[in-house]
Amino acid sequence: MLSKENPTNPDLITPGKKYKITCTKGGKDIWTKECDGKFSCGSLIYDCLEDDGCSTICKNSMIYMPENNEFILIEL
Question: Does pTM top 0.90 for this prediction?
Answer without folding.
Answer: no
